[in-house]
Design brief:
The protein has 139 residues and is an alpha+beta fold. It is built from 3 helices and 5 strands; from the N terminus they run H-E-E-E-H-E-E-H. The protein has one domain: HIT-like (HIT family, subunit A), CATH 3.30.428. It binds zinc ion (ZN).
């Protein structure tokens, strides 16, 4: 728990929110700056900054709620799809440093795009990066 964390304040009921789900470990509430109607944040009650700081059990509890809520939110707002996004670290666009998943309902032709340009590396370059990642998985 962090004193000044906006999400901890929402969890403690010190800031208003529109909660759509709550259990003993996880809470979900509407984003106050939604990309689309129904944009929901799914948050563990325990304050940790990044995904890797959750226990496996906490991470599983979180993604179970994401999986359960996403199709129901899509239905509720009449969307056709959804994105699940978690920004970890300032470089990735994380603004609130309490780990959270965004569920963003998507509508055909809503014009919302991930604004990163994409590259087209060679298979050799992909293999090099793949090897690096696998070396880091060994410890
Ligand atoms: Zn927090």
């Amino acid at each position: 728990m962090a004193e000044d964390c906006v999400f901890c304040k929402i969890i403690r009921g010190e800031l208003p929110s529109v909660k759509v789900y709550e259990d003993e470990n996880v809470v979900a509430f509407l984003d106050i700056y939604p990309i689309n109607p129904g944009h929901t944040l799914v948050v563990p009650k325990r304050h940790v900054e990044r995904l890797e700081q959750l226990s496996d059990e906490e991470a599983a509890a979180l993604i179970r709620v994401v999986k359960k809520l996403a199709p129901r939110i899509v239905e509720a707002v009449g969307a056709q799809g959804y994105n699940v996004v978690a920004n970890n670290g300032r470089a990735a666009g994380q603004v609130i440093f309490h780990v959270h998943f965004h569920i963003v309902p998507r509508f055909e032709g809503d014009g919302c795009q991930m604004d990163c340009s994409r590259s087209k590396p060679s298979m050799e370059e992909l293999r090099e990066i793949g090897e690096k990642i696998k070396r880091h998985l060994e410890h």
